[in-house]
Amino acid sequence: MKARVTVTLKSGVLDPQGQAIQGSLKSLGFSGVGAVRQGKVFDVELGESDLSQAEANVRAMCEKLLANTVIENYTIEITP
Amino acid sequence: MKARVTVTLKSGVLDPQGQAIQGSLKSLGFSGVGAVRQGKVFDVELGESDLSQAEANVRAMCEKLLANTVIENYTIEITP
């Protein structure tokens, strides 16, 4: 089983990296670029075969390590 | 219009960050964790209203800045 975890900053949290990328895109000549927000994505291979157990495990991984839940949101997609 | 770009390492490319995360998950007591691969996700607000033009623009952004196409793959999802 494989899980994809996408971690993004909560709205309202300042994203200096995103702003730097937005500036670079403009200086490369891309017009009409609005806000850019950068996040992380994790592909985790899991040994479980039970879907709900796998989801619970990945949720715990996010809460403990993969996401800083004070300033970040996370979504989990599990593929068999 | 909004685009989500997901950038991940090509298979076969060493991912020391992913290995470090895998080790940390094991030391936190998560058993059965296989390989972990980390990537980036970008949410870009676009001024275009034409879907194909927006896709072409984002593809050019990836080729020029958002992805290192020698070692990374990217996928683009555009939502109106």
Automatic annotation (TrEMBL), chains A, B:
Catalytic reactions of this protein: N(2)-formyl-N(1)-(5-phospho-beta-D-ribosyl)glycinamide + L-glutamine + ATP + H2O = 2-formamido-N(1)-(5-O-phospho-beta-D-ribosyl)acetamidine + L-glutamate + ADP + phosphate + H(+)
A single GO BP: 'de novo' IMP biosynthetic process
- Keyword Transmembrane part of the UniProt annotation: no
A single GO cellular-component term from the record reads:
cytoplasm
An example of a GO molecular function for this protein is: phosphoribosylformylglycinamidine synthase activity
State which pathway it belongs to: Purine metabolism; IMP biosynthesis via de novo pathway; 5-amino-1-(5-phospho-D-ribosyl)imidazole from N(2)-formyl-N(1)-(5-phospho-D-ribosyl)glycinamide: step 1/2
This molecule's function is given as: Part of the phosphoribosylformylglycinamidine synthase complex involved in the purines biosynthetic pathway. Catalyzes the ATP-dependent conversion of formylglycinamide ribonucleotide (FGAR) and glutamine to yield formylglycinamidine ribonucleotide (FGAM) and glutamate. The FGAM synthase complex is composed of three subunits. PurQ produces an ammonia molecule by converting glutamine to glutamate. PurL transfers the ammonia molecule to FGAR to form FGAM in an ATP-dependent manner.
Note the subunit structure. Part of the FGAM synthase complex composed of 1 PurL, 1 PurQ and 2 PurS subunits.
Q: Which HAMAP family match?
A: PurS
State the protein's name.
Phosphoribosylformylglycinamidine synthase subunit PurS
Q: Origin organism of this chain?
A: Devosia insulae DS-56
The gene it comes from is: purS
